[in-house]
Write a structure and sequence with these properties.
single chain, alpha+beta, Beta-lactamase, 2 domains, 37% helix
């Protein structure tokens, strides 16, 4: 026992012999209770404190066997200091990417940086995505793009699906960029069949501001809100925007939805990212995309790590189920997943979770060259 604790220990042979006898007799008596051996944790009561100085052990309590009382000299409470240990993880060191990792997959890989943090993790993630592609085949499409480095992965990205409600965010972005008066009142003249949602419940002739309709179209995916925005402001600005982006689908008279590809949606949602990065209206839009009612796909997998702004789309008749996400990781990325399956079930959510998990791993390995 260190001397600096401040306790003068009795060292004569009589004390040591007497203490041993008392403890031995105590153990014999306790072990005879119920015929069971008492675990050490119940008979030994020596405790230690994790302080800068080691305190003296407490003496075990023993039955009174008329033994002489052994006392220790009065002592002052030892001064203790809490030791705080901070473990700092060493920063990861970039390594050169192995070029052979970028080819030979079921999906395309392009524009990856020359350095990554782990070729091993990259290889494993690519392998897992290959397995997913093999499992789902032509029934899924995806495009991943890191908006900072330009690194991209794509699979079946030119297949056409019904765009469903994924169109609502790019359309609302076109209205915001046009500069419409968000406080302008819009009279509800049309309702989407089947009747569902806040606007339909309000009925014909009710009024909402443009701001309210945009919020409902994004957060609740309200079809009647979206329909009345199209009827009020038209689709020319949306079509012009898509033309500038190189997107291959448009809106026209009599239809407010269309068919599109994952490659189309990637261009539109990347455009939303940059618009939000530069404008207050865009920032408002991506914040609405973080408050949606349906968040069981990409958001469910990644939003515990960083903010995810997204818009989903589904249609039972067309067997479509999609999600478009702007993921605000340290190096932000856009992930678009389109699928042909029964929508909005635990089973149909699974492919979104699996792909999002792997692309998050891939994204973590990228080294920005800026």
């Amino acid at each position: 026992m260190p001397k600096d604790v401040g306790i003068e220990w009795v060292k004569n042979d009589m004390y040591n012999n007497m203490k041993a006898a008392v403890l031995l007799l105590s153990a014999v008596l306790l072990s005879g209770c119920g015929g069971k051996e008492i675990p050490p944790s119940e008979t030994e009561r020596v405790t230690f404190t994790t302080t800068a100085e080691t305190a003296a052990p407490e003496l075990a309590e023993v039955p009174d066997m008329h033994s002489p009382v052994i006392t220790l000299p009065d002592e002052e409470e030892p001064v203790t200091e809490t030791v705080t240990t901070t473990v700092t993880e060493a920063p990861k060191e970039p390594v050169g990417i192995k070029e052979e990792l970028l080819s030979g997959h079921r999906f395309s890989v392009s524009d990856f940086p020359k350095q990554v943090y782990s070729n091993k993790k990259l290889k494993k993630a690519f392998s897992d995505i290959d397995a997913i592609c093999g499992e789902y085949g032509y029934s899924i499409s995806f495009v991943y793009k890191n908006v900072i480095t330009g690194a991209a992965c794509a699979y079946n990205e030119n297949r056409y699906y019904g765009c469903c409600s994924t169109i609502k965010v790019p359309f609302c972005k076109s209205l915001l960029a046009k500069g419409i008066d968000l406080d302008e009142k819009v009279t509800i003249n049309d309702l989407w069949i089947p009747l569902a949602g806040t606007v339909a419940e309000s009925g014909y002739g009710s009024q909402f501001t443009a701001r309210e309709l945009i919020k409902l179209a994004v957060t609740e995916s309200d079809n009647s809100a979206y329909l009345n925005l199209v009827n009020k402001y038209g689709f020319y600005d949306f079509n012009d925007m898509n033309n500038e982006l190189g997107v291959g689908y448009y809106l026209g008279y009599g239809y407010i939805f269309n068919e599109c590809t994952a490659a189309d949606l990637l261009k539109e949602y990347e455009d939303v990212f940059w618009y939000a990065n530069d404008t207050k209206r865009g920032d408002w839009l991506i914040r609405l995309m973080q408050q949606t009612e349906h968040e069981t796909q990409i958001t469910a997998q990644l939003s515990d790590k960083y903010p995810v702004s997204h818009k989903y789309g589904s249609d039972w008749d067309q067997m479509c189920y999609h999600d478009c996400a702007i993921c605000y990781a340290d190096l932000p990325f856009v992930l678009v997943i389109m699928t042909e399956q029964i929508p909005e079930t635990h089973e149909s959510d699974e492919v979104f979770h699996r792909l999002a998990e792997q692309f998050d791993i891939i994204n973590e390995q990228l080294v920005s060259e800026e």
